[in-house]
Amino acid sequence: RNEVELVRKEIVSRAMLADFAKKNPVKDAEINAEFEKYKTQLTGAKEYRSHQLVVDKEEVAKDIIVKLKSGEKFEDMAKLSMDKVGATNGGELDWALAAKYPKPFADALVALKKGQLTESPVKTQFGYHVIRLDDVRPAKIATLEEIKPKITMWLGQRKLQAFQQDLAKKAKIQ
Fold first, then answer.
1. Which H or E run includes 132?
2. Is the C-alpha dihedral spanning 81, 87, 92, 98 positive or negative?
3. 92 beta partners
4. What average pLDDT is seen over the chain?
5. For the whole model, what pTM was predicted?
6. Model confidence pLDDT, tens digit, residues 93-140
7. Distances 158 to 17, 35, 152 between C-alpha atoms, Å
């Protein structure tokens, strides 16, 4: 009986949430407002393409920097990286906003000039990074059509969360 009651409550709960979502769809005005916020956040932002490798000891990272400055290829040195994906692809990172990375890494990346290597290892929670900046470009801003499904899903989830939190606040537990 208890299991049947739990299943019944789950079905009722799902139906209530589905009904709420149906009666409170995400409106185009909400989507447009969120898209404008997104565009504002990326206006003037830059994307960075770089190489990196990460090791567990600062001294090892310092030795790698010395070797790189003396002519060793980054792609070869990246094989020493604890980051297995980076170790297999030469340490290449795809285009990304600096904010995607841990703050110390992002700060070091933004401070580099194109083609420049970090002068000293950058410590993050993952280890000691050696970074080379390959290129910088203005951030690509997706069109409304490209991003609308994601915005709609995100706003819908946010509305459902708010509804659930409101129900929890109003609930009287006996």
1. strand 127-138
2. negative
3. 51
4. 92
5. 0.66
6. 999 999 899 999 999 999 999 999 999 999 999 999 999 999 999 988
7. 12, 15, 10
Ramachandran sector of residue 90 (left: φ over 0; alpha: ψ -120 to 50; beta: rest): left
Give the three-state DSSP class for 133.
strand
Report which of 69, 30, 37 is spatially closest to residue 157, judged by C-alpha positions: 30
Lowest mean pLDDT segment, chosen from 11-15, 42-46, 76-80, 157-161: 42-46
What is the SS3 assignment for 50? Answer: strand
Question: Which amino acid, residue 105?
Answer: F
With 0-12 / 13-18 / 19 or more C-beta atoms within 10 angstroms meaning exposed / middle / buried, residue 123 is middle
Q: How far apart are CA 88 and CA 78, in angstroms?
A: 8
**Amino acid, single-letter form, for residue 27:** K
User: How many Å separate Cα 169 from the centre of its chain?
Assistant: 31
pLDDT over threshold 90, residue 146: yes
